[in-house]
UniProtKB/TrEMBL annotation:
Gene Ontology molecular function terms on file: alpha-L-fucosidase activity
InterPro entries in UniProt: 6-hairpin_glycosidase_sf (IPR008928), 6hp_glycosidase-like_sf (IPR012341), GH95_cat (IPR054363), Glyco_hydro_b (IPR013780)
Natural source organism: Actinoallomurus bryophytorum
Source taxon at top rank: Bacteria
Record's protein name: Glycosyl hydrolase family 95 catalytic domain-containing protein
Pfam families: Glyco_hydro_95_cat
Taxonomic classification: Bacteria, Bacillati, Actinomycetota, Actinomycetes, Streptosporangiales
Amino acid sequence: MNTRGRHPIRYVLALLALVAGTVNVVAIAPALASTSDAAFDSSTGALSVDYASYLAKHDIVYNRPNTNPAYGLTVGNGRTGAMAWSQNGLTMQVSGADLSEQSAYAAGLVNLYSNPGMDTGYSTYQQRLSLYDGVLTTKYDSNRTVTVMGSPNSEVMGIHVEDGRSNVSSVALDLSLWDPSTVSNVADVPDLNTWKTYSTFADSSGVGLSRGQTDANNFGYTLAATVEGANYTSQTVNGSKVRLNITPSSSYTIWFTAASRLNASNHDSVAQARSQLSSVKNTGYATTFANYKNFWHGFWQKSFVSYQNSSGDADYMENIYYLATYMIASGGYGNYPFHFINGVYRSTGDQTKWSNAYWYWNQRDVYNSFLASNHTDLMKTFNNLYSRNYAALKSYTNTRYGVDALWVPETMGWDGNARGTVGSDYTKNILSTGTEAAFNMYLQYRYTNDATYLRNTAYPFMRDVVRFYAAKLTKDGSGKYNMASSNAHETYWSVPGAITDLAAVKSLFPVTIQASQTLGLDADLRSQWQSILDNLAPYPTDGSAYLPHTPPIAQTRNDENVASEAIWPYNTTGIGAPDYQTALNTWNKRPFPYDNVWANDAIQAARLGLGDQAYNGMKTMLQKYQNFPNGLTANTNGVFEYLGVHLSVMNESLLQSYNDKIRVFPAVPSDSSFAGKFTLLAKNGFQVSSEREGGEIKYVGLKSLYGNSATVVNPWGTQQVRVRRASDNAIITTSSSGEITFSTAANTVYVVERTAKPLSSYSSTRLTGSANQDVKSLKNTSSTLGLGKTTSGTVNDTALTYDANWFGSSGRGLGDFNDDVHYSYTNGATAQYTFTGTGVDYLSEKNGDMGNVDVYIDNVFQTNVNLNVSGARQSQQTVYHKTGLAAGTHTIKIVNKTTSVGIVDALKITP
């Protein structure tokens, strides 16, 4: 705290945050449907949903131009993404997943501008990210509309312009790249110079910029553009900028691509770019746009969730669910995964932390939800990163460990290299990553029933990971198989009996044995594997909870809750498990609750059936990490992990099938107003639908995709239920037991219903919604989605009243608002301000030397705000947001609660 200095960049971001303030922030309470109706369609085996209107209520809306790149809205076609903001017209950062070994070296800028400016001379404005159509539309009055869309699941995106103004004298589109001198971090790039070297073209076909053209790994790309519907000329502005000069027209489309060498014939990205643009131009805007919307419509119809309550907070969480699903999917269909730190979206230059490899811990958060949401093709993209490197991983395992088996580095490069792992004490002795990779491949088989994938891809990987553990485990003093020394992930180094290794064996060995029997392979190995499983050391405990490794507990090196990993992702315990109480105690005693952007505490809460904790966990993560109105975070440890965790929490709260038992609504909040509905995918190929309102579960609908046997946990306890085949209403079985198991036929719909209150007793309904038109907020947090029409007034910290325990440091050059800050080291120090308005935002920076404060409105406690953050100091941001106050005079009071630093930077008042 004593060495605080000026940070000019942070000061600019702080001012941008102030400019982007909102007043019309609303929390929309949903109109909850009647408890007497049901939306299940027995003919399709899914909920009846008007997806167009329902998803429109979750559109992200900016009602004023956004000039902050970090707030840019994200639009993509599955492979190429664009992050858009208002700067000299419309500016977008464009990137793709397959452009470079390091995701930082994979972006360029597209800037569309006109004279007079598109964003001048208007009275009404709205920018809308339509999730259902996958489209970003900006409207200025009724005579200008700019639509960003694309060619589906390709490298081509488009900007369609409808401009009815008669006074436009010029239109131009610039393509540019960031300063090549900033390119650094060469861990996975054989020749840095090729990424600092740009080439251009400008001719009758369009314009383009290329880099990485001599990359030895065949990465590199060309950012290129052309125009449909208007005449144009091409121009090279300089070595890193080219321009299309477009003849003004009332309607035209600019097509642009980030064409990768990796996916191009002969690895010629220039020829690929020209070909892609020529093809989409020949197809035409109307057909391409229709195909693009159909792509996204088909995507959404794979599944459905509704998570609602009367306060509106659940609606906000549901909104994040759909937004996060869209963002990841919009760049997740490349040959390489959507990277946790960048994805295909960012507003920074080529220097981005940790862009050179894939951390499994972080990537699993981004991808693991997509099996339950019935997007197994997205999960396959993640799995393919590991299966395609099977030979390289086996070779390295033999070199490093001297065994013919498979070890997977926690930090792995695009080609399976372990450079990011073996050079780090944090990761070099993590042995369990291969189990996670192998198990996710096995899950892909279990969700898709793809026996060919199991035989040719998943099982060989599983078998060799099991063989690695069989070679590394030794018998301890009690005669049990244990791991003598390894890392319990990144937090405990070189420790005995890591729970991650024991959980890996408990998780992977049984399914590998089962798969070998199914395939009729490796009978000679099964007895060894079974013997290890039967004689495995128990998890280490303190008598009531699991420990991360055999005690004494080693020095803590990171803030992972390692012992809870047994709950998720290793799936060895949960609701109804014999060790449930121990698992619950483990979760309750975890040392680092919600302590980082990748914290998966709430997923584990859902697995334990803790509905309130799962709900509050989602809210906590959003409160801490959803800093920007586009749904993204200011946290530089990762951008997309907390969003991926959010997806998994919601899925697991509504449906669980990890232990081959279908359990509906296992972890929903106790709030009596909560209403949940879903159509999700369960293990073994069951499309499951259910609805819960007023504390009542109405039915469980199953569409059997492959004809496997189904086991459903009776959601009504011991009430009598029956299983009815929907096609002919035949009763398959009746039972009052806690679980119902029945055979199914492929592509057949079944309904599990109470005998006393069958599905037929509910009236039929269709789920719809109304389009969102404004900002949404998460109550008692600073998290918002969207931008309002006007900005609010800002109050410098000097206007507050402070007690004697606060220090004023005006003029110390802190880079916050007006370079002023008031801070205190005293527990109980109080600052307050009286204002007239309907809302207030409290602004502060965050840093590692800071503590937490309590916030009161009109002397009523509101919330505790944690100002402490690990890593680099975070720029000034809204840390508390309050709206909906009655018009009039109110007082905000901020009370420091620790002897660490408490700060007030500024307040923003909503009239």
